[in-house]
Write a structure and sequence with these properties.
By secondary structure, the protein is α/β, with parallel strands linked by helices. The chain has 3 domains: 235 residues, P-loop containing nucleotide triphosphate hydrolases (Rossmann fold, 3-Layer(aba) Sandwich); 171 residues, 3-Layer(aba) Sandwich (Rossmann fold); 74 residues, no CATH class.
């Protein structure tokens, strides 16, 4: 790794009203270096990267790329300077080929015909140089998640990127795909590329990075060589205090089956579907479902939350056939923590108290006829907010004003705390779909501990997560979804990371 700085940010400050998102940040990146950028949600990482890529303009401060000033607020200038970014959520057109996706935006509109032959040769050359395999004519829709990510990286390299920003690059990859990515990163670094690596996964941060920079509340609070850092130290820098790992403890399940799916299928035309899925959920256990997104996890969660019906098979709740109605299931003790907290978990323009009582608003506790018992609802909402330590907004504030972590705490509180007069509706089945997605390490520990507490109180938790570390840390039993099929749910100790990864990729003998 050379000491030549290829990127220098000096005194970057960005304010949004009274909020200081970035506060005088000075940071550099050397040629052939992997710099990990860490921080809690709201620490300023996204703002800093957006300024670097030209999406925001800093209030003060300057950026130099390869010794030249980088014009502010100009994404084209960032691309021309050799800065490329691979977002966590891919921006590929599924109905186009790999080649089409790569060359979009690289040719002048006035050309009478596309220079496809030259583009194909260049793409193959770039892939060979950096050790990627590529199928230029393959449709994006036919590719695995790992293959799509490689296309995103090739898009940046095709445009001659010399600095690559990777935002949560392993969030949706199998362990094997993550290993392939790390090998590719090593090759790119050896070729002289510089990489900014954004991730919440501290073990992989320490594995792939040369240096770590930590933001907290908009300030750069620490920099360290990765070789001399520890996970505990990084976590403490991120949140400002010691963060204890969630301690795994044996389940105290009664063995009673609370919910069961028997050979359940959903319509074949649906993109995310179930194909003859069977699963029994017992009181006092967490069943963790691993798998790459899009393989049926959404259908499984929606079946158990009453938002989707089955075309065959049987789903029962304490022996009673379920009704495809969210209200019916909530009344019978099914709590849901949806995958998308912003679009599904809360109504952003409604007040916090309204979001807390929204799923039980028709109960006699909170309403009489068409009249809402506002004082009762406010008391319950305040109790939830206090118990689950929701910070950053008052009862009358809109839910969209909350940070991601606090929004998730609000959803947890709504799901896990039934009103005092509805003890019979306390959560018995908890469907937790990506409950810690995008949360910082402190919020992750909080959410996971709450799920364990609910399990210990006798509930059954169905945990659907793309995070293999979370699956292995919390799951008493683990099953893997692939192409709508579900493996047998086996005790966690009977799985390894490798066998789960193979099952996630559809290798049948892994199950």
């Amino acid at each position: 790794m050379a000491d030549t700085p290829v990127l220098r940010l000096t005194g970057i400050t960005k304010r949004f009203g009274t909020l200081v998102a970035n506060d005088g940040i000075t940071l550099s990146l050397s040629q052939g270096e992997v710099l990990a950028l860490l921080g809690e949600n709201g620490a300023g990482k996204s703002t800093l990267v957006s300024i670097l890529f030209g999406h925001y303009v800093a209030d003060t401060g300057t950026i130099e790329a390869f010794g030249q000033p980088l014009p502010p607020g100009n994404p084209r200038a960032a691309l021309a300077a050799g800065i490329g970014m691979v977002h966590q959520h891919f921006t590929l057109a599924d109905n186009l080929s790999v080649l089409d996706n790569v060359i979009i935006g690289t040719e002048p509109l006035w050309l009478l015909r596309s220079r496809r032959a030259e583009a194909r040769a260049k793409l193959i050359g770039v892939a060979e140089r950096f050790g990627f395999s590529v199928q230029p004519d393959a449709l994006i829709s036919s590719l695995s998640v790992g293959e799509r990510q490689r296309v995103e990286i090739l898009k940046a390299l095709y445009r001659s990127a010399r600095i690559l920003i990777l935002d949560e690059p392993t969030a949706v990859l199998t362990p094997q795909e993550s290993e392939a990515l790390f090998t590719s990163l090593s090759t790119m670094v050896k070729q002289g590329l510089s990489i900014i690596f954004i991730s919440h996964k501290l073990p992989e941060v320490l594995r792939v990075s040369h240096r770590v920079a930590v933001l907290r509340q908009g300030k750069l609070v620490a920099q360290a060589d990765a070789a001399h850092a520890t996970q505990a130290r990084l976590a403490q820098w991120m949140v400002g205090h010691t963060v204890d790992d969630v301690a795994r403890r044996p389940p105290r399940g009664s063995g009673q089956v609370l919910c069961e799916l028997d050979s359940v299928s959903t319509p074949a035309g649906e993109r995310d579907r179930l194909d003859r899925v069977s699963l029994a959920l017992h009181a006092g256990e967490i069943v963790a479902i691993a798998g790459v997104s899009g393989n049926g996890q959404v259908a499984l969660a929606e079946i158990l939350c009453g938002m989707r019906g089955a075309i065959s098979g049987r789903v029962t709740l304490r022996g009673e056939p379920i009704v495809a109605s969210p209200a019916w299931l909530v009344d019978r003790g099914v709590a849901r923590i949806p995958e998308d907290r912003h679009a599904v978990g809360v109504v952003g323009d409604l007040a916090l108290w309204e979001n807390v009582v929204s799923e039980r608003l028709r109960s006699k506790v909170f309403s009489r006829g068409s009249w809402v018992r506002r004082s009762t609802a406010l008391r319950h909402a305040q109790h939830v907010i206090d118990t689950f330590a929701v910070r950053g907004a008052g009862l009358l504030s809109p839910a969209r004003s909350l940070s991601g972590g606090n929004m998730q705490k609000l959803i947890l509180g709504r799901a896990l705390m039934s009103p005092a007069h509805l003890a019979e509706a306390r959560p018995r089945v908890i469907v937790a779909h990506q409950p810690t997605w995008g949360l910082d390490i402190g919020a992750v520990a909080y959410v996971q501990e709450r799920l364990l507490t609910a399990r210990d109180a006798g509930a059954t938790v169905l945990l659907v997560s793309d995070d293999l570390d979370e699956v292995m840390a919390l799951g008493d039993r683990i099953a893997v979804m692939h192409a709508g099929r579900l493996t047998v749910a086996k005790p966690a100790e009977q799985w390894t990371r490798e066998s789960i990864g193979l099952a996630m990729a559809g290798v049948s003998h892994a199950a």
